[in-house]
Amino acid sequence: MRFLFEPGFFSSAPVRTALVIGALAAVISAVVGVATVVRGQSFAGHALTDVATAGGSGAFFTGISPLVGFIGAGVFGAGAMDVIGMERLRSRDIATGIVLSVATGFAALFLFLDASKSATTGATQQILFGSIFTVNSSIVPFVIGLSVLTLIVMGLIYRPLLLSSLSGELASARGIKLRRVGLLFMLTLAIAVGVSSIAIGSVLSTALLIGPAATSLRLTTNMRNAISVSIALGVVATWLGVLLAYDSYYWFPSSRGLPVSFFIVALILLAYVVSGVPAIRRFAAQSAPGRRHMQLASRSVVAKRASEAT
Amino acid sequence: MNERAVLEVEKVSVSFSGRKILDDVSFEVRRGEFTGLIGSNGVGKTTLLRAILGLQRIDAGEIRVTGAPHRRGARSLGYVPQKVILDPDVPMRARDFVALGLDAERYGFTRRTKEQHALVEQMLVNVDASEFADRRVGGLSGGEQQRVLIAHALISQPELLLLDEPLANLDPASVQEIVALLHRVAGEYQVGVLLSAHEMNALLPVMDRIVYLTDGRAASGTTEEVVRSEVLSKLYGHHVDVIKLHGRVFVVAEPGRDNKDIAEHSNLTVS
Amino acid sequence: MFAGFMANAWLAGTIVAIVAGVVGFFVVLRGAAFPAHAIPNGAFAGAAGANLIGLNPLVGLGVFSLAAALGIGTLGRRGRSDAVTALALVTMLALGAALLSQSTEYEPQIFSLLFGEILGVSTSQIIPVAILAVVCVTAIGLLYRRLLLTSLAPEIAAARGVRPQVVDTMFLIVLACSTTMTVPVVGAFLIFTLMIGPPAAARCFSDRPGPALGGSVVIALLTLWAAIACSYQTNWPVGFYVGVFSATWYGVGRAYLASRRGRDATTSLVRAPTASGSL
Q: B108 and C268 in contact by Cβ < 8 A?
């Protein structure tokens, strides 16, 4: 135990907040992420983190709540993408690109103005990468509230969204309004991404949105399993990442640790690469019950960690 | 072998991970003739066409185009794929797309000559596409896009023209127009046309030869030779009836036979 | 405004805009906006790494952007290419974060790598940029027709002996190359913006590939020149103006297209392709 958990891991308040916030972000990212990957909207999912970040830098400058900046800009950006056109694959690409361009333009402006207004160091760094260890615990209630909202909306639109992602024609034949479902999903995505990028930073937000979902979609055959597996993957990667980052302070003599995002992304990438190995895919495809066990096992590990952590 | 043969497929077999997709398939396509490759969805039509194009490795047999073993990208072959998703935002007129058929694989930026422009114009007239030659390809209807794709394939003067399900997703009027166009083109350019389709009735008036594919096995010959109860029953491995009615052909299995191929086939023709 | 150090800014801006206009035309045509965003953004981590071990940042940028291009090109072939692009991006950014955490002075450098410092370009920086620009534009010129055909109809290209995957990877390498040269000058965000807005606007104005490509270069040049001028006057960052101007161009292009469609409704430009299911 001592070997694994360096001293003070469980008694540290930032670590506890990081574990809670990280797990929450991982869960909503996994739920929204599976739909994002299936719909081929990874670019929009990532771009919205940058758009939210631009909103964050604007909020920093104007002095309004960063939460409003992050979520507001994300929702606005998602709406703008929808107006420009998200129906066709390639116009979707351009819609995302244009919105991202404008957002980064404003981010450049706000960061410039921020820097000239106050000599805050680390603002760029902080806004770009965030840091799970420096999360202000006062935003935790908001994060929980918005996460619950996201999950509820996803639950409501789950079936029409699934059908319209698989076949637009089939969905409209059944009376599903593709445009409305698409827009609702984009707005949900914007909120999910906004929440997770304010909590864990833009890099991790994209990583948790796409990585576990893309991995689980290679291993499972139905959506429900895909969502459960990606939740498990996301949460495990996040907690292990926090643990390793905490421990890493003791690795180097300079006592300068490596960032959490590095470990979490490395774990997610590892899972994705491993899931691509043909033998593993075949194993997962052939042994559906076996896969269940695997899932349950990983969940029980998670549960055990959770009980230890509190 | 017939000296007019532009395509010879001999005892070709292809399997994917132990499953036989094509099993000992043989047929030939002749210059100036219209050959239909008929079979339901999933019987291996696309695989066969990809094998002819050199994009699919074959496990056994031989494929010769104009007498020589085929190599990928030969100019003697024109191809119209099953699905081309052209985006209406792409800045490319029908005319530009046809011209691209002349020199798409050439490196660099050479200017096209007057003769080449005249050739493009002529080709557009030939496929009845001059009316929409200056509109964007992505904005054209399905039938119009098919014409442009056919012109694109023909302009490099191939000896064999392969079309993968060009009639799917077209309305009946467009189907007739495209079929008539291909028949005319086959004679005019002395090109062998091989067209895959899941439904043969639209092709009956123009089809010189038929390759009937089911479960990876094929029967070929003229329509009269192949579309007969004995031949098709042998191919399917159980009894089927061939019913000719009002100039249309229906392939019907005995009731209770749970044969998806036939069910689908007769459904399509009845509707 | 045209004297002294500003001469370098105008020159560098012109080179960058030409490259962005040419490469961006195919970025938009091929739907490669995500790689065009991911490669320069991720590559900045390479510059950070190079800084840490005392190498020229250009080397780090080059290595990272090439690795990203090849990774996206080969892994994206199997599986979902947009998810692979996202993973490549976050991997590079996470590596960048790790490298930065080990170094002491970073803040202004990250800012300039992301947002550029075109007003402070030195003469020695322009030479490698010019060389790489010539390489990129020549490569696109050589591949021009192959890029067109593989973007529109990859199956036809394959049947004609042009391997779409090979063309795709070559294009990503050109993209990586143009990124390496432009990131130190204009920043990762700005180069992406110039590769999307102007080409997307240009294809509203012309139905032909050649003129649309030319238009893309012209619009990119006008955008960047105007942005440099405004930035010089107001002291606000160039990136802000480039973002706003190129989006405006796109808006104007869309409006023009809509009005043209309205004018000749009989020969409407966009007619929905015949719906399937018409048996």
A: no
